[in-house]
Specification:
Layout (H helix, E strand, L loop, with lengths): L2 H19 L4 H7 L4 H8 L7 H10 L4 H5 L3
Helix pairs in contact: 2-3
Length: 73
């Protein structure tokens, strides 16, 4: 496994965790953040490299700061 993948895996796990705490389905989060659901699934699986713009959209919908989303990742 490539070292960078560890970062994306942890980021994906964090997004899933926050999404579940907010009681949102993957479909709902994708719709509210104007992302394709399959792209969101790839982010959550650690298989995509989301831009800061995408992460900002997700953090707004999840009602969390971007810094919190990235903390400990």
């Amino acid at each position: 496994m490539v070292r960078g993948n560890f970062f994306y895996n942890r980021l994906g796990e964090k997004i899933i965790s926050i999404r579940q705490k907010r009681k949102l389905s993957q479909e709902q989060l994708a719709l509210l953040s104007d992302l394709d659901r399959t792209y969101l699934a790839r982010i959550e699986e650690g298989k995509a490299n989301p831009s800061v713009k995408v992460l900002n959209k997700l953090s707004r919908v999840l009602k969390t700061r971007l810094s919190i989303l990235l903390k400990g990742v």
